[in-house]
Amino acid sequence: MKLYEVINPSDQITFYAPDNDVAEAVVVLLGSGRFGLRACDGSEAPETLYVFSSPSELVIARIRTTLRNRNEECRDAAKTYAVCSAKNREMYDAFTEKSTKSDKVNRWDDQRRSSESDIAGSAREWGWRKGSY
Asked: Which positions ≥6 away from 76 have C-beta within 8 Å?
């Protein structure tokens, strides 16, 4: 799994995804095009920020295909969203024991969240919800 950062105006959010396709689909779906994406290993990451533009039809088709064909992988990636920098992700994983649904996860986020928007919590909720996107 590869570590990614969600670029947004409030909190540092990181999550794991198997590849750029899943990371892109999750960030665009959950952020409605308002968040950017950065691969924490320095490799290329797809464009996900569409505040001042719209994604091309090709990008929309690719994201839909990923969400449809790899729905479980997208949901698993969303479950790993955390209010945590890449630098502190190892500490977060140790503290939460890599759990994605626990009081420790919520406590960590609540102590570090700087705004009322619960980006990580909302992402995890979507990940746990049954059904397709």
From this structure: 127
